[in-house]
Amino acid sequence: MKSTFSKQNYLLFLAGLGLILLGYVLMIGGGSDDPNVFNPAIFDTQRITVAPMVCVLGFVTIIVAIMWRPKQKQESAK
Question: Band of the pLDDT at 53, cuts 50, 70, 90?
């Protein structure tokens, strides 16, 4: 039985999941223990710009992993 996905598809899929996880880890933090104190770290470039871009890159990588099709070897005409 032939599988729909190749090893390369699964590796790309895992890389995409890793990028999404990294993006969510980059979003962690910036809160304050005291609700009466404002912590401006919540609006850092890392949390507002970089982390969502990394997550989107991970989702794009997963889409590419699903759509990726290995090149077929062409048989020479005799």
Answer: very high
